[in-house]
Amino acid sequence: MEERENEGMIEAGAQQFIHEHLMTSALPSKEDFARMAALGFHTVIDLGTSRDSVSLPDEDTLVAAQGMNYLHLPVDFSAPTFEDYELLRDLLNALYPRKVWLHCAQNKRVSALMFLYNIIDRSMPISEARARLHLVWQPDETWQAFLDEALEKYVYQYI
Predict the structure, then answer these.
(1) What is the DSSP string of 105-159?
(2) DSSP conformation class of 19
(3) Full domain range(s) for residue 34
(4) Residue 1 has what pLDDT?
(5) CATH number at residue 28
(6) Whose CA is closest to 99, among 14, 157, 31, 23?
(7) What is this structure's pTM?
(8) Please, which residues bridge with residue 78 across strands?
(9) Is residue 93 part of a domain?
(10) If residue 64 lies in a helix (H) or strand (E), which one and from where to where?
């Protein structure tokens, strides 16, 4: 995997370097937002929901205080949708080349959606995208079914 310029600076767990303009992780600490700003991140996107066991209720304020944009796109962990993926993909494409930090509570939602993003939008081989996903977690039945349906919808019909 590529070198990360933030090595050792950001404390959030389950970090993944997607490309030079996109990093993902589990929930960052309050202190991480200042470090992200210092590293040139422009936007923080949170896919968590208010029902998550861990969250930062004032995350929008913490991020804005560092001069970054905050976007909250809650993805229901028990019911992901194609619209969740499409909205995130469109947002990431619109923000490029600005640096984005994308997170959820444990990086499970994010890593699953990045699995699709890597395949569909970055032309990454499925085996490589799957290996990156499995560095974070093995999707449960709900998420595996969603990913299988998404591959059928977005990829396999064109092969």
Answers:
(1) SSSHHHHHHHHHHHHHTT---HHHHHHHHHHH----HHHHHHHHHHHHHHTGGG-
(2) E
(3) 16-158
(4) 38
(5) 3.90.190.10
(6) 23
(7) 0.91
(8) none
(9) yes
(10) helix 59-65
* The predicted structure's pLDDT at residue 14: 86
100, 21 Cβ separation under 8 angstroms = yes
Determine the Cα–Cα distance for residues 125 and 122; give it in Å rounded to an integer: 9
> What would the pLDDT profile of 52-83 be if each residue is shown by its tens digit?
878 888 999 999 999 999 999 999 999 999 99
Domains: count for the chain: 1
3 domain residue, yes or no: no
Compute how many other C-beta atoms are within 10 angstroms of the C-beta atom of residue 51.
Answer: 11
Amino acid at 66: Q
pLDDT in tens, 92-127: 999 999 999 999 999 999 999 999 999 999 999 999
Give the neighbor-by-neighbor strand order of the sheet with 22-25: 16-19, 22-25, 100-103, 43-46, 69-72
